[in-house]
Amino acid sequence: MSQGEIRFRGLTLGYDRHPAVHHLDGVVPAGDLLALVGPNGAGKSTLLKGIVGEVAALDGSIETGTRAIAYLPQAAEIDRTFPVSVLDLTAMGLWRPFGAWASLSRHRQKLLDALAAVGLTGFEDRPIGTLSGGQFQRALFARLILQDSRLILLDEPFTGIDERTTADLLALIRGWHGEGRTVVAALHDLHQVRAHFPSTLVLARRPIAWGPTPEVLSPPVLARALALSEAWDEAAAICRHEAGPTHDGRHAHDPSGHDHPPGHGHAHHHAHDHSHAGHGAAP
Ligand SMILES: Nc1ncnc2c1ncn2[C@@H]1O[C@H](COP(=O)(O)OP(=O)(O)OP(=O)(O)O)[C@@H](O)[C@H]1O
């Protein structure tokens, strides 16, 4: 498979055997620029962590074309008290290709170039704890540049970030897309998704719709995502029912149960709703 591709097969991800994402089938094609949307607790972060291997599959599988995935966690999960400079933080992007003990001096120009690309020239010796939220996010993007991966995962990269920085970072993402890299980003701002992300996966613990953004971000789909999320039973055991749209990277699916656009789809959709409690094996 191509390096930037991601394949989900009957995927269930969760914590202590309680599913946070389930019934996910489909392929993110290499080069896709995919937004992951859904209400709080919908499983977006869990899915990204599943792709990088931080959360193990309870059922089914995830295959990626590369193990060297560039991943930006949610800001709240990153410890900024770690006493390193902006240059050191950026250099962590080189660890995978060169090993932790490689001399960084010969990569210094590459590091400075990455800092310049995110607008942080002159910040290289600043301790990361002294940066503003937006400057820190820029530094993390510099680290992503250094990782030079074909597959880039971003968890709410613009939350708490001002418009100017967001615009700059979106331009970087568009550049990665132009280079044929795959980018998957969990986002809450639907205007941003409509403007910049050609494909969207709507999650509410299970996939609600997946396909071209203009088709997927319809009011009924979003209402359904919210309703399903609110109805979720936190105590549910693993559910083994087949449900949710499958995805082949080209076609949108909606909750009506019909492939969309008509006549184009060959993937199948099982539209039945089901209660999660009581299905499958209890732990
Ligand atoms: N480490 C954990 N242990 C137990 N449950 C967890 C853990 N992390 C997340 N969950 C649960 O998994 C579900 C999905 O959470 P997740 O963080 O993936 O949602 P999200 O879509 O990213 O939400 P948000 O938009 O609020 O960031 C939630 O019910 C959450 O409480």
Rg over CA atoms: 19 Å
Number of domains: 2
Query: Which class of the largest domain in CATH terms?
Result: Alpha Beta
Helix count, per DSSP?
9
Q: What pattern of helices and strands is seen along the backbone?
A: EEEHEEHHHHEHEHEEHHEEEE
CATH superfamily of the largest domain: P-loop containing nucleotide triphosphate hydrolases
**Distance N terminus to C terminus?**
35 Å
> So, CATH architecture of the largest domain?
3-Layer(aba) Sandwich
| Bound molecule types | adenosine-5'-triphosphate
Low-confidence runs of at least 5 consecutive residues = 249-283
The total count of strands amounts to 13
InterPro entries: AAA+_ATPase, ABC_transporter-like_ATP-bd, ABC_transporter-like_CS, Metal_Ion_Import_ABC, P-loop_NTPase
Biased composition (Basic residues): 263-273
Keywords: ATP-binding, Ion transport, Nucleotide-binding, Transport, Zinc, Zinc transport
Family: Belongs to the ABC transporter superfamily.
